[in-house]
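Tutorial, part two.
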Amino acid sequence: MSVDNRGSVTVVVASGEDAVWVEFGAGVYHNGSPGSSPHPHGAELGMTIGGFGKGNGKKEVWGFYENGELKLSRGTPARMPMALAITTVCNDIQSIAKEVFG
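Running the prediction step on this input gives:
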């Protein structure tokens, strides 16, 4: 695997037979209930909402300090860019191959 930082963009390249990507959202109340996963294989792989670290993702709200001010968060929706990109490529592989090698 290699990582290339290009200003505000980071490019991650992985090669090999299999690669598992763990992509973190932040917030159970946007992404489902504790123990579930918006990713189709998340629960199967043990990657569930609120299951990582200290389980803070299970909380309805949590906070952090920024410049001495308490900021409260209820999380953000999961984005899953790698899972969605792989799904798109798998669904469109025939048309992609025709376009590239056509």
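The helical segments are 28-31, 81-101. In part three we will examine how such features are distributed along the chain.
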